[in-house]
Amino acid sequence: MERRCDRPTAYGVPARILSRKVFITTYGCQMNVYDSDRMTDLLAAHGYARTAAAEDADLIILNTCHIREKAVEKVYSEVGRLRHLKEARAAGGRPLILAVGGCVAQAEGEEMRRRAPAIDIVFGPQTYHRLPALIAAARGGSAALDTEFPAADKFGALPKERMASGVTAFLTVQEGCDRFCTFCVVPYTRGAEASRSVAAVLAEARRLVARGAREITLLGQNVNAYRGTGRGGRRVGLGALIRELAEMPGLVRLRYTTSHPADMGDDLIAAHREVAELMPFLHLPVQSGSDRVLAAMNRRHTVADYRRTVDALRSARPDLALSSDFIVGFPGETAADFAATLALVEAIGFAQAFSFKYSARPGTPAATRSDQVPEGEKAARLQALQSLLRAQQAAFNRATCGRVVPVLFERPGRRAGQLVGRSPYLQPVHVEAAPALLGTVAPTAIEVVGANSLGGRLVEAAAPRAQTGPVDQDGRGQYR
Ligand code: 5AD
Ligand code: SF4
Q1: Which domains does the chain have, with CATH numbers?
Q2: How far is the CA of 258 from the centre of ligand 2 (A)?
Q3: In what side-by-side order are the strands of the sheet with 281-283?
Q4: Nearest CA to ligand 1 atom 12
Q5: 327 CB under 6 A from ligand 1?
Q6: Ligand 1 atom having least distance to the Cα of 359
Q7: Sorting pLDDT into bands at 50, 70 and 90, what band is 17?
Q8: Residue 374 CB partners (closer than 8 Å, separation 6+)
Q9: Is 285 in the pocket of ligand 1 (CB under 6 A)?
């Protein structure tokens, strides 16, 4: 029987030419998720289809993250596991290429191949557009290492097409970080800040929307430091970029992450007031509630600055909810410093947050400090902070109950007849709804609050914006 295998794929490459398979494991942040998707786009143009089974693959890529503890060891142990698969495959006559990319590869470089000769290719976050050449070298038996920070535009070298996106999509607009917080590896692994042009971002957004995206999250290591070239060669900030994107027909929701509090300029805050498409949920890492610790972290803002920024954001958009990152047990952090972090959390009120024990990252200034906090103390502080943050998140979710929120439907639910969408606050919402509602926003009355998601019922009329706010605040940031 003849099989129809030469239909064009999403990339315009006939399916029969997608004869090889690539398996990608992504660690870490959304920027790595985006990079893995772009590698998929690029490799499709070179005959590779993505597979969900490592056993099936001709090429395995580990797209790694270096931000927190034991990242390097985890990668080597995964490589150790894959080495057996590689040996079995070589014995069977179907070679397997093993590539390590991302921030661990950037930081370790050549050392990776010395420590784990099973690795064929080592590449960094700034060189994945050169993967086809690296693969060709590896196939030819040559060493394939590329962890440069090339001056040429990586994005320009990637295919224009994006893989069929879902209802929500990521779009990297900015990369790198110039802030050098003393705990963080990002400035070393991702390099200096660089922004894509407004035209390039708009073009990619248009293609995503054409493929069905209704919500786009703009990504950057320090996304609100965005300074892209706009019309007439003028450099514009993130607020201006958001205003342009909001005009795009079909694009109904915008978000951005991750931001630095000191880069939260007036124009971006004003965009929260003026742009209805910009969702009222912001991830704004503060790390600590102690000025002493913030200074030692080189965060270049104080607790009062952070509170002023949050006040300005909340007066621009009263239904805004906040998420944050915290580090406990930064070197020299005293019990009083930690108490100040708890006090800040109480004062602000977070809808969601991530919190971590400080982990010394090689090559960063804080790693060499002699006043490291004992592990047991870090663990106790983390537990105390997380229990407060969990209580705030639960209170936030409970406060949504009985309200009507606009839900963007993303995918069918596990139960027949059910769709899963997201509230403006990224809460998953399960609703009985027709598949035709996928990709649309519908007002939904929240009736059930679960541990990790909400349940709701479609309601007739579009809810006015004032009603979409999940919660009232008592003026001290507490939800009720
Ligand atoms: N130790 C613990 N947490 C860290 N983060 C970054 N570097 C470290 C580190 N060395 C956390 C910060 C950052 C988030 C992405 O990861 O909170 O905002
Ligand atoms: Fe790392 Fe963020 Fe600080 Fe940059 S601003 S150094 S990415 S924590």
Answers
A1: 15-146 (3.40.50.12160), 154-399 (3.80.30.20), 401-458 (2.40.50.140)
A2: 9
A3: 281-283, 321-328, 352-357
A4: 325
A5: yes
A6: 1
A7: low
A8: none
A9: yes
